[in-house]
Amino acid sequence: MHKSELDELVKSTALLMERYQHLCKQMGQQQAQQAGAINAVVKSLPGQLRSSIDATLAGASREGADAMKQTMQAAVNDYEQRLAASGESLGRNVATLVTEIERLRRASRGVLLKSLGLVVAATVLLVAGTIWLGGRYRAEIERNQIQAELLRAYNRADVVLCGKEQLCANVDMRGSGTGEKGRYRRVRPRP
Fold this sequence. Notes:
The protein is mostly helical. It has helices at about 5-55, 60-155, and strands at about 160, 165-170. About 80% of the residues lie in helices and about 5% in strands. The longest helix is centred in the middle third of the chain and has 95 residues, at about 60-155.
């Protein structure tokens, strides 16, 4: 994997984690708002129901109204208790959800930090490996260049095998000697 691909992966992961954290935060806020709205409705319903019952019964006869009011009051009390229990349950569920969202946010930060650490470690290893291989292959290339130059010189020289593992050369006797005590002479190029 190339460094640019690793960088792109880190950026993509970071953006994804930021979006995830933002969505978690929004969900928590929405849940809290909805819980508040539901609690407000739950608290206002019994009063609205009572005023509606009172308005309905105002025109009825006093005795019938009292009997009906007692019957309706029992139903309203039961309804109030159920609504209160539902509101408490919803509140607990929202608190649990908020706690879970916060736990997931912390876990996502941990994953992001671990991913970033792995990318940094992989990049360091990649750079170190590149430097090591570069030095090793540079020496090998230099050695091969020297051998290639020597082979090119042999190919241009007028040299043949003249016996088992013996070379014979067409030597330029007019040239000056080189090397130790001038004992080497230039080989003429192939015709």
